[in-house]
Amino acid sequence: MSLEETVERVLKGEGLEVTELHLAPEQTKPVTRKNTCFAVCAVIFNSKNEVLMIQEAKGVCFGSWYLPAGRMEDGESIEEALKREVKEEAGIDCQPITLLQIQEKGPSWIRFVFLAEKTGGSLKTPEEANADSLQAQWYERESLPKNIRKRDILTLIDAGIRYHQNPWFSELQPVDLPCDVVCQRLLLAFTSSNANPENSDEERIWLLVSNDLQLPVAASFEAPTLIITAKKLVKYCMPSIYEQLSVNTCGILGVQHNGRVPGQTDGVCLNTLVLLEYKEEEEEISVSSPPKTENGFRWHEVTNQNLRTEILQKIQEGSILPVQSL
Questions:
Q1: Per the CB 3.0–4.6 Å rule, which of 144, 169, 267, 273 could disulfide with 179?
Q2: Which InterPro entries does the UniProt entry name for this protein (predicted)?
Q3: Do 42 and 24 belong together in one domain?
Q4: Model confidence pLDDT, tens digit, residues 222-275
Q5: What is the DSSP string of 292-305?
Q6: One domain, residues 301 and 266
Q7: Is residue 175 part of a domain?
Q8: Residue 13, SS3 per DSSP
């Protein structure tokens, strides 16, 4: 597969098999399902635009309200975990519409937040209370329960409302492809000036690639996983100028996960868009060309007009799945 075909697939949210890790230092422990938790969360609205909430049954947060959410189990895909958690906690069947956001906390957990819709079942009643939840109810955004477990869900509810009203990225679902660690395939771009789709004919854009013209895949390590990985890669392949560079993770273009074989196929690969810029202009540095690379990497200029325009639009408009480090 050519580099151009690879970039097209990544931009469409499609997956690619992980065959090589370009950054995986042996002395550093990579993030896997053994040392991090994968979780799911559902934002579901009914025909009245009310959001689905569940009342917690766990001792530490007993009686408080939250979105349906929980940890993935061994052998599950991300979508299977979503459907199971919603069924157990809320009593209804659901179908994912799109991934809405990816959240992380340290390397301790990564949470996949979905916008989903009800497809069957009925709300869990107080008479059906069990260890999973006490009950489920629909609530208007302006009339949510006062005893919410954590207020982080408010931004997720608002994102779901916004997506319904005006989707800012195409619907995105996880792709069933195996991986044994948490890693990122980086569409790491450098532009000749501030990205501006209106002047895309004049804009030049380069992508960081390995010497064999592959998009780099970097393992995530025990740090704020999703944000730090790109910085570690840039520091590795541009060490002499790293301190003068700004590495900005724009968001997620695609999610790859299988989960069938614990310890072997239950990692996740996140195809990530990253923008590399100089922190400030200096006379001795040409900011119109990408920085010098080392250690087996080089720059490839994107000459395909359609690809260049699409990449620039995603950078400028933020039309990709957001990622949040908590």
A1: 267
A2: Nudix_hydrolase, NUDIX_hydrolase-like_dom_sf, NUDIX_hydrolase_CS, NUDIX_hydrolase_dom
A3: no
A4: 766 788 899 999 999 999 999 999 999 999 999 999 999 999 999 999 999 999
A5: P--TTEEEEE---H
A6: yes
A7: no
A8: coil
- The reply to whether 64 and 122 lie within a common domain is yes
Q: Are strands 182-191 and 268-278 parallel, antiparallel or unpaired?
A: parallel
- Dist CA 270 CA 246 (whole Å): 21
176-228: pLDDT as tens digits: 999 999 999 999 999 986 545 455 557 899 999 999 999 999 999 876 678 88
Q: 217-219 and 182-191: which strand pairing?
A: antiparallel
d(CA 85, CA 205): 43
- Same domain for 264 and 216: yes
Half-sphere exposure of residue 261: CA atoms within 13 angstroms, side-chain side: 7
Q: Is residue 187 packed enough to be buried (19+ CB in 10 Å), middle (13-18) or exposed (0-12)?
A: buried
Joined tokens for residue 252 = 């997620």
| Single-letter residue type at 186 | L
Q: Report d(CA 22, CA 16) in Å as an integer.
A: 15
Best CA proximity match to 275, nearest among 306, 253, 304: 253
CA distances from residue 132 to 92, 150, 238 in whole angstroms, order as listed: 13, 17, 49
**Is there a single domain that holds both residue 155 and residue 243?**
no
How far apart CA 168 and CA 22 sit, in angstroms, is: 32
